[in-house]
Specification:
Length: about 350
């Protein structure tokens, strides 16, 4: 590989530093085995940044992210941050807006040896629109999408655009081309006739341009129920921001645990690895957290970079990380406590790194 890669690492809050350290242990092993010239830089976000610089997301972090080839973001405790006026910005939301990371890609699949609550075997991906919808920090150019005209009246604005809808649906169809060639557009068009109607209009346009991909539409409550009853029927689901956030957590729990839920936030020029789960401050510093979700997210980031740069070593490294992660999770003795195993966070990362080094090419 000729060009160096620069990845910006943001540890986050709570268990963030622990699982990020484990993920970096695995990344360094992949770097050695596959000859990846990766430079890691770091910056503070969250509580550490608020204490040091008066903001949970300093302006310098946004600038560093724009300059990097990719970002690794640990879990954050943004629900506990002070108001925006007091420096409490959501680093995840800020990254998604500033880097235009419109596609939140969240796979959910069952693994050998890890039972699903449904008893079913499935492999699906949810493509969630990431930059608009009902998310109050992403709906307005100036101000906030939630407001109170009177002390007894609260309102929220939902933003759906043709461009935002088109590009997330296109991302879903691109995913389906390399999978089982089926896309399900999830909506609430029977109630949100204008906004979800617009989303569906664009989805149908993309579907008509890709006739080789099977396309269907499904109301969100039906999709939530069928994820429990028959998750194997799905391949790629595409939906708006809030629906995607909720359904992806459901799908991940049904696959075995939210602790396994990897995700990538991607745009046309930038991408960020981020675990789906939160910062779990109740177990922070105890070496109990499962780092699998962030490790899987880093693997997705390498694969994304490999596709964009057409670099086979990056794609191979990402796939190898996922394979070795699956094999480690298949054995009860090499799991973390949340999955009934004995390994701590650091030991799990070290074990996975050792497996990667053991398969040196």
């Amino acid at each position: 590989m000729s060009d160096d890669l620069t990845l910006l690492v943001l540890e986050g809050d709570g268990i963030g530093p622990e699982i990020t350290a484990a993920a970096l242990d695995v990344l360094r092993a992949a770097e050695e085995v596959f000859g990846l010239p990766i430079t890691l830089t770091s910056a503070k976000v969250g509580w550490a940044a608020l204490e040091a610089e008066g903001s949970t997301f300093p302006e310098s972090v946004g600038e560093a992210a724009l300059a990097a080839d990719g970002v690794i973001l640990g879990p954050i405790s943004h629900n506990d941050y002070p108001p925006k006026e007091e420096g409490g910005l959501n680093p995840s939301g800020e990254m998604r807006k500033r880097l235009d990371l419109y596609a939140n890609i969240r796979p959910a699949r069952t693994r050998a040896g890890l039972p699903s609550p449904t008893g079913k075997t499935f492999d699906l991906v949810i493509a969630r629109e990431n930059t608009e919808g009902f998310y109050a920090d992403r709906t307005m150019f100036l101000g906030n999408g939630e407001f109170m005209p009177t002390p007894d009246l609260a309102l929220a604005v939902r933003k759906i655009t043709r461009e935002g809808s088109r590009r997330i649906v296109q991302a879903a169809f691109d995913l389906a081309k390399n999978r089982r060639k089926k896309v399900t557009a999830v909506h609430k068009g029977n109630v949100l006739r204008v906004s979800d109607g617009l989303f569906l209009e664009e989805a149908r346009k993309v579907a008509s341009a890709n006739p080789e991909i099977e396309y269907e539409e499904q109301i969100v409550d039906a999709a939530a129920a069928l994820l429990v009853r028959a998750p194997e029927r799905y391949d790629v689901l595409v939906t708006t921001n809030m629906f995607g956030d909720i359904l992806s957590d459901e799908a991940s729990e049904l696959s075995g645990s939210l602790g396994l839920a990897a995700s990538i936030n991607a745009g046309d020029a930038h991408a960020m690895a981020q675990a789906q789960h939160g910062s779990a401050p109740d177990i922070a510093g105890q070496d109990k957290a499962n780092p699998a979700s962030l490790i899987g997210s880093v693997a997705m980031l390498l694969s994304w970079l490999g596709e964009r740069r057409d670099v086979a070593a990056l794609r191979e490294a990402g796939m190898a990380m996922e394979r070795e992660l699956d094999e480690l999770l298949a054995v009860p003795d090499t799991r973390t406590p949340d999955l009934g195993g004995p390994l701590g966070t650091a030991a799990f990362g070290a074990a996975l790194a050792a497996r990667l080094r053991g398969r040196r090419r």
